[in-house]
Design a protein that fits this description.
This protein is α+β, with helices and mostly antiparallel strands and 426 residues long. The chain folds into two domains: 307 residues, Hotdog Thioesterase (Thiol Ester Dehydrase, Chain A); 101 residues, SCP2 sterol-binding domain (Nonspecific Lipid-transfer Protein, Chain A). The protein contains 13 helices and 15 strands. It has a ten-stranded antiparallel sheet with strand order 1-3-4-5-2-7-10-9-8-6, sandwiched between helices. Strands 13-12-11-14-15 form a five-stranded mixed sheet. A hairpin with a 4-residue loop joins β11 and β12. The protein starts with 10 loop residues before the first strand and ends with a helix. The relative contact order is 0.12.
Amino acid sequence: MALNLDAIGQKIGPLSKDYDWKDVVLYALGVGAGFDELDYVYEGRLKVIPSFAIASIFEFLAETAVAANVDLSGILHGEQDIIFHNPIPTQGTLTTEGRVTHIYDKGADKGALIISQADTYHSDGQKLYTNIFTLFCRKDGGFGGEPGPSLAVDIPNREPDFVEDALPSEDQPLIYRLSGDIFTLHVDPDFAKASGFEKPIMHGLCTHGFACRAVIKHLMPGHPERMTRFRVRFSKTIYPGVPIQTQIWTMDDGTAYFRTINAENGDTVLDGGIVQWLSAEEARKRQRRGALVTGAGASTSAADAVVAEIKEAGGSSGSASGGVAAVFERMPQAFQAEAAAGVEVVFQYDISGAGGGQWYCVVAGGACQVSEGVHEAPTTTIKMNHTDFLALTAGELNPMTAFTSGKLKIEGDLMKSQLIDKLFKF
């Protein structure tokens, strides 16, 4: 399946998310915080770990993958750069909007890079942070595009100024995934083995959070709100329960480099780390500016205008007219025969809830046949609640978002499921 190069420049969002102190604390626990960092886990004195900025907008990351039509079986997080404009409040509504900015070709045997950028605003009117995502798509290279630039970080040839050791729990992914990244690779042993791993692996962004805690502890202890940039490249995977070490080199004032290694074998897990932060006085000035933004008149901010647009346009989750059975009745009319050349596949649908049931669709010879019941040898089985299924077919629920949030479960050939969007237009 070819990448969608037309995704470059394509707008994603606005996407909104409500959160409160429990979301902030759950994230902190997921990245290893505990009683020794009470400011991150106790609502009575709560501060937000800045790397929460990426955990709070997983939906945007999923939308990027969908827009670019990547091969899900080969997707990994490549790099992450976060620019912080203001401290993150402990509750509120986040509104995120951005676009795919670049698609680079590293070669048929190396994969492709999908880069997107997103700005996030808080409901108090402040712009909080800008995320720059790089998705490494192992199976999507070789389309003849530009290879793109590479950002080299020259780690000093000397001992690090600070070292922070940590031991993630063997169950760490089970906690971290509750913050939103519930991709099957980090919990299902069978899926992990099918993807080439011995067992479920650590989320790269979970290790990312451990590293963020480490640099704050040594560079701006007790003041996460002073961080202005946190950039890293995901170098190698690591299994839960393996000790890690974050090594930090201070450079010019307000800048440091870091990396995180597998403490058992020395492999670099996170590389090319850059962290920047404000002085105490600069942080106080920024706080005063923020107080002006969130004072009287904040309700007319640009962020609130975006939220209002969402409420006006979004409405409630609708449904395909006539219910689940009617969707399958219309399926032959929605079939795109021109997209089915050479395709032979059987989709089994198990739809739970009121009005649900079981149907299967056979695509072969450029034709489509839909029947009620269970096929004896389906290629791919789709399992959903009836409400989510209706929202999906009505175009109100994104397939990647549904999959990563657990609303869509896929058994059998995962890659064949990506054909559905091309074969049927409801």
